[in-house]
Amino acid sequence: MTSEACANDRQRLSRRTTLALAAGLLVPGNALARTLQDRPDLSSAFQSRGVTGCFALYDARNDAVTTVGGARATTRFVPASTFKIANSLIALETGAVRDENEVIPTGPGPYAIKAWERQMGMREAIVVSHVPAYQLLARRIGLDAYRTWLARLDFGNRETGTVVDRFWLDGPLAISAVESAIFAARLGRGELNASARAQALVRDILKIETRDGATLYAKTGWASPGPPAIGWWTGWVERAGAVHGFSLNIDMPDIAGAPKRPEISRAILSALQVY
After folding, report:
1. Which residues, 6 or more positions from 99, have their beta carbon under 8 angstroms from its beta carbon?
2. What are the pLDDT digits (tens) for 114-159?
3. Mean pLDDT lowest among 2-11, 122-131, 187-196, 265-274
4. Whether pLDDT at 8 is above 80
5. Which strand ranges, in their side-by-side order, compose the sheet holding 53-59?
6. Range 109-140 burial, b when 16+ CB lie within 10 A, else e
7. N or C: the chain end with fewer CB closer than 10 Å?
8. What pLDDT is recorded for position 227?
9. What letter does residue 229 receive in the DSSP assignment?
10. 49 three-state secondary structure
11. Residue 9: left (phi > 0), alpha (psi -120 to 50), or beta?
């Protein structure tokens, strides 16, 4: 092997190790706990749309992580409404809500989004990202229960701060794209430290579509405590028993950037032959 080839190999190993360290993916002895590969060749999905961001894919069957966007994929950000995935699970497990259809008695508003002015259960609330409904559930759940469940679910930095109905919108709760993708895959496989019933109900309300033998599950998010504001799209794809968790986050200064979240994610999932 030439000296140039050796140098290139060392650079690739260093890049993988840096990402793995940031994601907490190393075990004693510096052995990689799972395969981790960065794909800068796919960054055109962001660049062509004038967007800065990252994407992470977790192949649960092969315990392999693929990232686009380098170290950003292991950087934690406020999860915003993607936390409704975990929040729905916690609400069910704590009895804050009986099931996905129980009506959550929010007030009539007015709210920033017209769809929020109608009372609904979690099945509908998660589709329209009904923030007031989930804030009401949060007040029912309480900080002590959240701290227990965030640790039990190993969700991000597990921090709640002191404001029970804002910690996933303003912080201090934070999670990386890699962690989000792994969390989503674990839910998709029913492997979280939670009841089978609650996991099944949450999977059901996250279903987006089925095509060509694959089913897509996902949830959007938009966190604006920045700058910059952060847009998310997190979920998983299931095909023939194989589950691929994914998570994208982008700098999203205003709502006009919202469609770019699924656009970019779908482009990368297609390039990776996942969906």
Report:
1. 92, 121, 201
2. 999 999 999 999 999 999 999 999 999 999 999 999 999 999 999 9
3. 2-11
4. no
5. 35-38, 64-68, 53-59, 242-251, 230-239, 214-223, 207-211
6. eeeeeeebeeebbbebbbeebbbbbbbbbbee
7. N
8. 81
9. P
10. coil
11. alpha
pLDDT tens for 192-227 read 999 999 999 999 999 999 999 999 999 999 988 778
pLDDT band at 109 (very low <50, low <70, confident <90, very high): confident
Tokens linked to 34:
């799972």
**Residue 7 structure tokens:** 């140098």
pTM: 0.88
Which amino acid makes up residue 104?
Answer: I
Instruction: Measure the CA–CA gap between 264 and 47, rounded to whole angstroms.
Output: 10
State the catalytic residue, choosing from 3, 44, 48, 81: 81
Average pLDDT over residues 49-75: 96
Tokens 């409404």 sit on residue? 81
Q: What is the pLDDT of residue 24?
A: 46
81 is catalytic: yes
The answer to whether 141 and 96 have CB atoms below 8 angstroms apart is yes
The SS3 of residue 246 is strand
Q: Which residues pair with 210 in a beta bridge?
A: 215
Hunting for tokens 């279903």 — which residue is that? Answer: 207
- Listing DSSP states for 191-210 in one string gives -SSS-HHHHHHHHHHTEEEE
Helix axes 131-141, 143-153, angle to 10 degrees: 100
All residues at 6 or more sequence positions from 14 whose CB lies less than 8 Å from its CB, including other chains? none
Distance CA 270, CA 275 (A): 5
Q: What is the mean pLDDT of residues 149-172?
A: 97
